[in-house]
Write a structure and sequence with these properties.
alpha+beta; 3 domains; five-stranded antiparallel beta sheet; 15 helices; 52% helix
Amino acid sequence: MEITHQYAQSIVDRTMKVLGYNINIMNSIGIIVGSGDKKRINTFHQGAAEVIKTGKPLEITSDQAEKLEGVKPGVNLPIYLNEKIAGVVGITGEPNEVRPYGELLKISVETMLQQAFLSEQLRMEQNARELYVDDIIRGNFIDNEDIFLAKGTVLGFDMNIPRVAVVLKIYGLNEKIYGKVNNGEIKVESENKTELLNEKNSVYVNHLFAQKDELRLQKRREKILERIKQAFSNPQNMFSYSGSNIFIIFYAIKNLDNVKLKKEIWNSIFSVKDIFEKYNLTFLATVGSFYPGLSGLKKSYDEAFKALEIQEQIKKADKEKGTITLAQDVSLEILLANIPQDMLQRFKKLLLSHNPQLKIINHEKLFDTLKTFFKNDMNISTAAEKLGVTRNTLSGRLDKVKEITGYDPRKFFDAMKLELLILIEEFGLS
């Protein structure tokens, strides 16, 4: 790892507050990359070059400093990272005065540099893991599955564990936090307060607010991502997050029981309910079916994503979110979504031969009645209770459906045709 100016200057600034002496950090070729004296940054330090060459500390007095390039009196010590010289740290001052701080400074810098290195390694590993998931989604494993599986093992994944795709979409995650300046007033909306500020230069202030807004949104996204990872803490779960509002998880499953699986995922998402409520967020989650192999994982993702698109249309109509849906629960809808449009048009025309202009979705009361009736297994008593009407009222509505469509919803094959008609209308599939 090469010592960058960003790392070096951060270490210099923190250490100087404690010691009170000027500190320089040089990289592996003797260039000053961090210093309390900003004018010296990017200049060559001959004393550091000597330390790198010999691997030994070097003390320089005022008299010696006058004869060397870019050097002031002080103590210079090699700094090691993973048992290799990564650079040199120097403390400015007469050696007799600053020598007692030398070893302490060396240990401090090496510790902070090691922490920075580990953080960078962790970030790179996380990025590599997310890219691995993205490659699965895109099918970038087809040319050589064996090598791709080996790469997954190197990243710490047991590639023999069964997994299913979970697509989690969070609504409101990217909504603005601050308002805009209008008519000389700025409405500032935050998590804790709302206030009005007067400001003449509204364009400038709006620009400042936009910058603050993006920073706050980024922090919010990072906080929520961290909580979601904690909720799905099994190290065998694979994550991908593009920075938008969709999180993808290849969830390691213990068994293929869909009821238990749905409950597990619900419990994980429910554990972050508090942060969703804090930021006034809602969500939809969909789960693909299990299929073996890498191609099976991609298939599970494709299925889950298609289920999400369908659920968004359903929930838009129902005006509710905060649910988890297994792809198999909307398998009929997924099937319809994959049928060519011209075939759906012909099928719809056949269904509506009794009343070609009928749009059952426009009959709101009848539409809701049919959906509830079908959701409750065509049980009149249960459906009537759910709708809050009497059995006779429900029967009257079903008779009306038969009158305008030509299909009796109480008969299985007629009910199946009506269900297909509802789906085609509701999802705009034709």
